[in-house]
Amino acid sequence: MWQPDGSEVIDQPAVAIPLAAATVRYLRESCEDFAEVLECRRLPSGRMEIVTFELRVEVPQRPVYDVRSRETVSVCFVAGRESAPGIVVTREDFPDTPHQNIVPEGFPSMLCIDDRPWQDVRSGYTASELVTRISHWFAKAGQGELHGDDQPFDPFFGYSSPHQVILTSDGMAAMDAGQKLNVWTTDENRRFLLVTSFEADGFPRQVTNIHVVQVDVEPQQMKRIRRAPRNLPGLVNMLMDRDQTFVDRLKKSVEDWFEGGKRDDDAKWIFCVLARFPQIHPRTGVVGATKPMAFLAEASPGQIGVALGVLDHNDSSHGTDLKYVRRLFPRTDIGSLSKFEVQVAQVHMEMDADAAARITGHEAADRRRAVLVGAGSLGSTMAELLTREGFFEWTIVDDDALLPHNLSRHTLNRSHFGRLKAPSLAERLLSIRSDVAPKAVVENLLDEPISEGLASAIDGAELILDASASVPVSRFLSDRDCRARRVCAFFAPDGGSAVLMIEAADRTTTLRDVEAVYLREVLINPSLETHFEAGQQMRYTGACRALTSKIPTSRVGVLTALIASGISKEISLPQPSLRIWSVDGEDAVEAIRLLPAVTARSIGEWKVLIPEGLRAELAGRRAAALPNETGGPLLGLVDFEAKIITAVHAPTPPSDSVGKPTSFVRGTIGLRKIIETAEKRSGGQVRYLGEWHSHPRGASSAPSVVDVSQIYDLSLISDIDGLPAISLIVSEIEIGILVGSVQ
């Protein structure tokens, strides 16, 4: 049992700290079958009470670790619940297991039974939970199940230093290469010490009163650390046990400092040993490098050199400006370093893609090359969110510059006024993660021909994300012959909805296909009736075209976050996806998710796209009308340049339409209003394409004489606008397609 100096034995009823008293009561009243209170103690200050009990443990026949059937456990309770109870085992031969805290030399073993932050759980922490966790710890230790295969095996130090170390990515790379480091501080109190490579840009040069010695232990030499050193001799011995060259390295570091003409007069120095200890995973046996540990001493290199026997104080009357001189006959005396206490400082690693992915709940980082077209409010926010989650290596394409009114919804700031958005956004992403490797292309994608640089970026990309809010850009990207998977995201005109369209990974379903399903959904889903209604606009200058939409920044943030979340979830799946999110006046979100499926048919020089939903609807309406024929107007898109006709919607036919077993005559009452309503609801994107009708049972989809005459008449009407006409013929097993145009 643990009986620290100065502590006094107290009776069980005298235990005063609430959780300690509750634990004594719980052990006495509810745990008599497997636990017995042996002793209670209190420190003179009254700030700590220690409850020691014997725990009976279920030990397997062949325990992985030397866990005994009876273990003595001391639990240390701190008054005020400022810190979690400490679980102490004083048995000298207690095994070296995972999940033990690293404690100073001379302290007994301390178990780690809970990895949750104490501040999060202390309000509801009970004696039964405490005892149960201790009991489970011993049971799992015997079975070798303390440590999961997927858990990193990093020891935990009780941090004792008021300083913390931040190691940047380039600083870590410099350590890997054995190169010189640059250390600087963020404030006068030197709370944070930033370690970068010596060549890193954007950081101050070496701070003269911080000295760093870096140590890398070879994996074959490693042992798990159980005790933290209290002073420099303890640190030296710990490192010498793993790296026999450490003392020589320490002496050389001091000598290099001395040869550089460094001074330490009237300076408060920090001597830092930054060490990395590769670890063997206790279950898999895999060797992995742990993050560096920082050991700090309040000493200058000169003071260390004198104690180490490398330097001497300059007591002569010569060279009075030199505080130290090189010792003529160096001697190594590790014991002389005992006056320098060592503190353990917390080390923070700069976030890279892997860390970003882990922190945000993703299995792995996604380092695919992505081209972002459009660096506006959506593109900038979306790219920043995905960068913070470990996604993509970015190339940003935009030819626009940042204006003052952009700041209401853009991630850039007033220092970027008048600067080009693409390189400015690239700089911002780089400031978040140094491994994101962003590039910028200042160009309008629709300016033909595109530059070689832009063509190379697009053709070399694995993903293309269109955030330009431009239908022509989206279609240009969809039609370009390259291997990249395309993604398109945009807001509805009133800022109340967000849309995400993702192609199939193998591009068997393209953005054009997904767009067809999207427009169809807008026309048939009652909840999207106002989807394309224009929102409020304002002029940001006196020019007639200087308009911007009035959309709350918070709304943009919500919708962009949904888009980024959708990309992070869908982009690893092979199938295409259509996502629509709508936010109402009460901030409730309605989500629509569809799996786009489209049939493509080539008719002469034209390609005709028909969404699977439309095909199923026409087949259903045919079956419902039997034995009569049915039909009606057909709406959709025509891209004359790309020679693509997309049918998306077949409105209910006018009320004066007549269907018979061998014919169908579409009426005219309200037809104009039906078409105009659909055009408005789609934001002016769909138009009248032609007609569709069904054939009776037993008839094929081959056109009749009447059908040929009809497509001829339709083509004459459509030719007024220079467009073709289309007629769909729905039979029992297929859909026939007629395309007519005036030559």
Automatic annotation (TrEMBL):
Family matches, as Pfam families: Prok-E2_A (PF14457), Prok-JAB (PF14464), ThiF (PF00899)
UniProt keyword Nucleotide-binding, yes or no: no
Keyword tags: Hydrolase, Metal-binding, Metalloprotease, Protease, Zinc
Start and end residues of each THIF-type NAD/FAD binding fold domain: 361-485
UniProt keyword annotation of Zinc present: yes
Domain JAB intervals: 612-714
GO MF entry, a single one: metal ion binding
Organism: Rhizobium rhizogenes NBRC 13257
Protein name as annotated: Uncharacterized protein
Family annotation (InterPro entries): JAB_dom_prok, Prok-E2_A, ThiF/MoeB/HesA, ThiF_NAD_FAD-bd, Ubiquitin-activating_enz
Gene Ontology biological process: cyclic threonylcarbamoyladenosine biosynthetic process; proteolysis
